[in-house]
Amino acid sequence: MNWRKIFKPSAKLSIFTLVIGGAVFGAVAFYAGQTTLHATSTDEFCMTCHSNHSLQDEVLASAHGDNESGIVVNCRDCHLPREPFAYLQKKIAVSPDLWRFVTTPGFNTQEHLEEHRLEWAELTHDYLRSIDSSTCQACHARVYDDPPPENMSRMAVGMHTMNKNRDEAERETCIDCHKGVAHPYPEA
């Protein structure tokens, strides 16, 4: 093996320089990508397009914003999965919404929200079903515990136990029973 070719394959740059340069560029690109992904997952960012909608007020008035424990749910808690690959997939899938915000007249109005609320609710429910409501279960993982959380009603314990004991193909996911928990579910 000719070490000279590895460290000096051309008159200008060695492979060593190219590898180090590539690693530095990759690290900077990764950091910039992560920073961008997280910056676009904040409530402040979401509200830039939804500032004239009632969505944030709806959450704050619901059990996800006004509860005994004092926990206030952020947009990302329900709308973005925690699993890294699913998170990236969802970010890519919703990126056209930025274009719609720029090109759709009246996008940032309550009237536009009400006109499309049923369609968007169904899309969200379909998505949550496709991920088995993993965003719900990230916070509500204890609903299937034995013994169940003490603040669950007997009926809720019975329903969750019955659902847990079903065959996997017949099991319901959170959103099948809990529609409208953060935003009012529109009448069809």
Keywords:
extended; transmembrane; electron transfer activity; 188 residues; Multihaem_cyt_sf; 2 domains; single chain; NapC/NirT/NrfH
What does this structure look like?
By secondary structure, the chain is mainly α. It has 2 domains: 1-39; 54-177, no CATH class. Helix content is 59%, strand content 0%. It is built from 11 helices and no strands. The longest helix is centred in the N-terminal third of the chain and has 25 residues, at 15-39. The chain starts with a helix and ends in an 11-residue tail after the last helix. Heme 4 binds at residues 136, 139, 174, 177-178. InterPro entries: Cytochrome_c-type_ET, Multihaem_cyt_sf, NapC/NirT/NrfH, NapC/NirT_cyt_c_N, NapC/NirT_cytc_sf.
Question: What is the topological layout?
Answer:
Layout: H1 3-7, H2 15-39, H3 43-49, H4 55-61, H5 75-79, H6 84-94, H7 96-103, H8 110-130, H9 134-139, H10 154-164, H11 174-177
Molecular shape = extended
In helices, the fraction of residues equals: 55-70%
Q: Give start-end ranges of low-pLDDT stretches.
A: none
Estimated radius of gyration: 23 Å
| Helix count, DSSP H or I runs of 4 or more residues | 11
Number of domains: 2
Distance between the termini: 73 Å
SSE string: HHHHHHHHHHH
- How confident overall, as mean pLDDT? 88
Category from helices, strands and their pairing:
mainly alpha
Question: Sheet with the most strands?
Answer: none
**Total strands:** 0
- As a percent range, the share of strand residues is under 5%
